[in-house]
Amino acid sequence: MLIEVCVHIQSFAIRRPATNLDPPFHVGCQNPVMNVAPRANATLVMLARNSDVSGAVHSVKSVQTQFNDHFRYPWVFLNDEKWSAEFMEKVGKAAGEGVNVKFEKIPRAMWGYPEWIDQDKARRKMEEMERRGIMYAGQESYHHMCRFQSGFFYDHPALESYKWYWRVEPDISFTCAITYDPFIEMEKHGKKYGYTIALWERGTTVASLFRKLSDYKARVHIPSTSLWTAMIDPSYLPWPFRRFLSLLRNRDAYGDIWNMCHFWSNFEIADMDFFRSPAYRSLFRYLDEDGGFYYERWGDAPVHSLAAALLLRPEELHHFSDFGYIHANLQYCTHAPTDEARRRGELVPMLEGRGEELGCRCTCDLGIKIVEPVCLNRIKQTVG
Ligand SMILES: Nc1nc2c(ncn2[C@@H]2O[C@H](COP(=O)(O)OP(=O)(O)OP(=O)(O)O)[C@@H](O)[C@H]2O)c(=O)[nH]1
Ligand SMILES: [Mg+2]
């Protein structure tokens, strides 16, 4: 039994490739800013409510200052309701002169219960989740939002003609200057999905999601990528006993558990053709028909992340290790506290390759928690 357990655990070891398959596109500042190449077929996208106006202005200013004043990519703002004059005026002004800004409504068919959902059951489940303290689970609109961001945004008529998008949320900040074009670099390097923060999901929000996806993977015979494996912690129980663990949440049929690692999708730069592919569409349809967007609180972050782990090769993902980023009370920082520096409240720059500094003119806010790179390091094993 001991040997069986050791062999089982060993089968989850990630074999690191000999070379780094996902280095940063550039290190340090590009001087002058690398903005002379033709633009990619790309847009910045923000889903927001009228009440998010001040957070939206904050985010737009940050993206404009750090990046888009030099590149002038268009913005698309999406809302399930009619945009207020105030939102359009303030946010349009924040984007500035010479930037194309569109305020769009989400069609009803993309936002709301599909006909196969039992709405009474959904409401009952939402109340129950709210009583259990699952954040936002009691808000019906939050569920519609997660479903839209998982399976519809890329088909919105305003995004249809674009290939690349950069998702921006209200109240975020970029803390480094971005002096090259990330869309062009993604394209050039064959990347499909880019992220900056990887962290743990709360297991209660998505109790059956991993099981559903892992069953789907077996059913349509998708081979395991090292990224999929990196998302799993093997069980220490021997066969056949570990099978009983499969009854618990976030476990697959064999009893192994999703370690809850996922990409924080409030920032992502990705190729919408990935989401528009038959493989992703069929995976989304399968999840949607299951009802977990309503009966549980499946977020678009774990859905995008597990789908990428299933359907992409690890080297098709890009970690924007040079993009300092703040959302809510968490941040990714290109400067890390050393033990000594931590005592003095100081940060030292992270170095890349030949001792060059990551990122350009980065600042770090010591008052905001830096996400520990545990989950990130596990994912990065797959690329070097
Ligand atoms: N139009 C519209 N946008 C929404 C709605 N609910 C959420 N959003 C947007 O969807 C995105 C995610 O919502 P958040 O409330 O930030 O949820 P979250 O990122 O999971 O949670 P936080 O960690 O609190 O930010 C944001 O861009 C919101 O503005 C809604 O009902 N209507
Ligand atoms: Mg948010």
From TrEMBL:
List the residue ranges forming a coiled coil, or say none: none
Gene Ontology MF annotations: alpha-1,2-mannosyltransferase activity
Name the UniProt record assigns to this protein: Glycosyltransferase family 15 protein
Keywords (alphabetical) are: Glycosyltransferase, Transferase
Q: Return one Gene Ontology term, BP aspect.
A: cell wall mannoprotein biosynthetic process
InterPro entries, alphabetically? Glyco_trans_15, Nucleotide-diphossugar_trans
Q: Where is the active site?
A: E268
**Organism, as annotated:** Cucurbitaria berberidis CBS 394.84
The family assignment reads: Belongs to the glycosyltransferase 15 family.
- Gene Ontology CC: one annotated term: membrane
